Every structure is written in structure tokens, then in C-alpha cells.
Amino acid sequence: MMIKAILIDTVHGIAEEVEMDGEPDTINKLLNCRFTDYVRRYIGKKQYMVIVDDESLLKENAVPSAVLQDGTIHLAGNLLICNYTADGDLKSLTEEDITGIMQNLVYMRNKPAVRIRG
Question: Average pLDDT for residues 9-26, to the nearest whole number?
């Protein structure tokens, strides 16, 4: 089953809807990394699973991809945003989710970042 998610690509400066199978190799390819971390964060009023490039903060000049409400950088590098089940499994975003996430984008260094609550 394919999963709808939002990819924030800090290399190309885009935020876009993607479909993926949720497998680790697919996620690593989408994020262009070898190691990921899964964190739950609020975007607007809803909590989402955010899959982050765990190597990004080790890179020189890491580009922010998630900021707190006050503008503090919280995450850097490429990330995927999707829904999750009660068991923690990944599941698709709804159209309402996608609209809400896109409305919470801000731009830092001319690249998209999502506004979150820590």
C-alpha cells in the first residue's frame, strides 16, 4: 500500500506531496541519507510523524527544515511528514492534512521549512 506524505527537500528548495511504500530503503532514498530518526511533532493542531535525515546536523551549513513557533531551528535537512496509526505504523496524509501542513510552511534561506510545536 502506498503512503501519501510531504517531502521537504532542503537541497532543491521544495516541499511536495510524494507517495512511498514506507520501507526504510525507500525513505532513505527520498531523504538522500543513510540514517533516519522518527519523531512525533505537532504541525498546527495535529500531531504527525516526522521522519528526519539523522545525518543532517553533522553536515556543515545544514539547512533548517523545521522551526518552532518563535523561529528557533528545531530540525535540519530533508524530512518526510506523514500520519501514523495507534501502533506507530506510517499511514497516508489526508487532503486536509496536506493543506494544513502546506499552510504552516515558512521560508528560511529561500528554502521551505515547516512550523512545528516541540
Answer: 92
